[in-house]
Design a protein that fits this description.
alpha+beta; FAD/NAD(P)-binding domain; globular
Amino acid sequence: MNTSQSSPSITYPTHFDVIVVGAGHAGCEAALATARLGKTTLLLTINLDRIAWMPCNPAIGGPAKSHLVHEIDALGGQMAINTDKTYLQIKMLNTSKGPAVHSLRAQSDKFFYHQEMKHVLENQENLFIKEAMVRELVVDDNSIKGIITEMDVHYASSKVILCTGTFLDGKIHIGMKSMSAGRAGEFPSINLAHNLEELGFDMIRLKTGTPPRLDKRSIDFSEASPQYGNDQKIRFSFTNSEVSGKNLPCYLIHTNQETHDIIKRNLDRSPLYQGKIKGVGPRYCPSIEDKVVRFADKERHQSFLEPEGALTNEIYAQGLSTSLPEDVQLNLLRSIVGLEKVEVMRPAYAVEYAVIRPYQLKYSLETKLIKGLYSAGQLNGTSGYEEAAAQGLLAGINASLAIDAKDELILPRESSYIGTLIDDLINKDITEPYRMFTSRSEYRLLLRQDNADLRLTSIGFEVGLISEDRYSAFIKKELSIENCLNELQDFFVTPSKVNNDILATYNEKISKKESLFNLLKRSNIHFDDLFIICPSFKTELHSEIKEIVEIHAKYEEYIKRMQSNIAKQLDLSHKVIPDFFNYDLLRGLKKESKEKLIKIKPNNIGQASRIDGVSPADIAILLIALRKL
């Protein structure tokens, strides 16, 4: 199959190992990974001034997303290091809840984040960056051979990673007006979207939105509640990365009944409610007009006023995403206490764009249709910078491994949130932008943000993205944790009056000899309390090691139970389904299940069991057929 529609007038003289199309968060991680693994890499972007841009919320992390950032860092990615250096404030969320949902979130300086990432890219060995729009892919015999730009320049490569974000046939909406754009003020990539359809990819349209940007000088902050980050210098990266140390406030405000009435009166001017927008938006992050309609019983909705950077007056109005006309936007904003005189610097808008339905991907993120073509980020139907960066990193690693004729890196859902993300994309019926939540992982107590390095650093080292020095420091940390756990098992406290008097201060007591490990299991006792309870126990440990050890003790039984469930799931994963398996010959299989199995072509029983619409009864029929084989 050869899909070049026209003969390029220019052929670039260099053959690149990898071409990455798009320089958003997915493209940056993909390009850095391949270049750092020694592959000559070409990174193409429509606009060099928008590398690693944050077109929506200028923030990194939050529930589950923080887990992804920690995992990216553990594998050798850049997002965590860049965030630590450029944040405006940083805060640990959900500290009153269990460790599985503890999440770090940084309010980022979007301009500094972009500048710093661009600097890293520009100075990366083996990486070449050019401003160009891709028109079509060059494909021969179902294998990628390169790309052709809109200027008829042909770049040759056997590996291409598409990270096009919202730019494929993008269209933005403000009121009943619309225009072709990937983001406000930026050209869309229309021809490449059509080219992918011609190649045979199953495409759908999705939608996302962004709120207005407000002029800080026109806001009465005395009517809003300031929200600061943590004072201490905490970080995403497991390295000793440079930390911003800033703590600029965000501000909490609320809509009111007048706001809601303005929105209801103008629904006839909403492209969302008048059917002008065809793409499906995210349920978990609805526009303000959607919130008002869907949650009519709520008297108010909250919004956070967040600075976009240290050197700009632009304020991001989180929670007020809308596609209503500009005059309505201004009226609804000025109905909110504190915003009575607000001036809008950039109006809110919705954007529709084309995506590849992700069942067409392998776990390596290589497409099933074209060998050597990888896809990452919003092109796969996800939403969020962190989800995009995670996919970009994995696609970059796998493209490099393929060049070296090495086995691809597959992260199972039992090992990571990245694995969960990719498993969900391939096996679930993605009809709206996918966002990672902690609830999506059945193993979330094992897959915490604090232990991402323990789970994935060895993999990053084996791949080649973790340095010898960093790996040596990681091994020392592992040994410290192991030694501490052994020490806690070896120190005992007897049920004497003195000891029970001390324990009584923690509302605890013992009736038999107990190890410090067993005492640490109790909810009222924390690691540093052990030094008081048992003065002979003396050890010098970093706070993060104490935290991991305490979690291990307090949740030991739950962890063991999850590990048992993982073992069962892995047993199903070992039951391989051969490529030649004919589902049409299976009797008793539901029609819907048969269609899904034929479409996705699962590698094993474990994957088949996670496909939407495939029931336990279907799996039983499949197992019987495999035994006969």
